[in-house]
Amino acid sequence: MTAIVFACLIPSCGSRPGAAIADPAFAKVAGVLEANCVHCHGDNRLSHMPPINDSAELARLVGSNAWIVPGKPERSRFFQVVTFGDAIPGAMPPTGHAIARQDVAILRHWITEGARIPEGRIISFHPRGKRPRSE
Predict the structure, then answer these.
(1) Mind giving me the DSSP string for 18-69?
(2) Which of 41, 47, 122, 128 is deepest in the core (most CB within 10 A)?
(3) Residue 120: its pLDDT value, please?
(4) pLDDT tens per residue across span 72-90
(5) In this structure, are residues 21 and 134 in contact, taking their beta carbons and an 8 Å threshold?
(6) Angle at 32 (CA atoms; ends 60, 103), nearest 5 degrees
(7) What is the DSSP letter of 81?
(8) CA gap 134, 95 in Å, rounded
(9) Which is nearest to 93 in space by CA: 109, 104, 102?
(10) What's the rounded Cα separation, in Å, for the pair 22 and 27?
(11) The three-state (H, E, C) secondary structure of 96-121, written as one string
């Protein structure tokens, strides 16, 4: 896995919500995850759900035979489930609404460009906004 070396802009970048991430592309990805995924795939997830509570856990989902296939969003299960229509089983989030098109575009671009995750310091993800209600 190729990764980008980054420097935190503030000393506690991995320890609190909204902390600055030096890589602007990954900061956008982190924002999408925090708004749409971390509520259910964070610390309180069910055991069968892939964890997305920090950059180290996210990195474990990246690989040629993994949830996130670098360079291939359409082959990445992670990307597929956020683009499924609400009527398709497994659509994420399971809230009766899809994530915003701009968020889908951010994830597509990130995966297409190699799904790089900054190295050096683990970046914690924290839920933002209302908790999605599963239906």
Answers:
(1) T---S-HHHHHHHHHHHHHTHHHHSTT--TTSPP-SBHHHHHTTBSTTSSB-
(2) 41
(3) 84
(4) 999 999 999 999 887 888 8
(5) no
(6) 115
(7) H
(8) 5
(9) 104
(10) 7
(11) CCCCCHHHHHHHHHHHHCCCCCCECC
* pLDDT attached to residue 7: 32
Choose among 74, 51, 59: nearest CA to 2: 59
**How does pLDDT run across 97-130, given as a tens digit for each residue?**
778 899 999 999 999 999 999 988 899 999 987 7
Residue pointed to by tokens 């190699």 = 114
Q: Residue 68 forms beta bridges with which residues?
A: 62
Tokens 């994530």 map to which residue? 99
> Is the Cβ–Cβ distance between 7 and 22 less than 8 Å?
yes
Residues ≥6 apart with Cβ < 8 Å to 58:
33, 52, 117, 125
Nearest one of 58, 28, 67, 52 to 127, comparing CA atoms? 52
Question: Which of helix, strand or coil describes residue 124?
Answer: strand
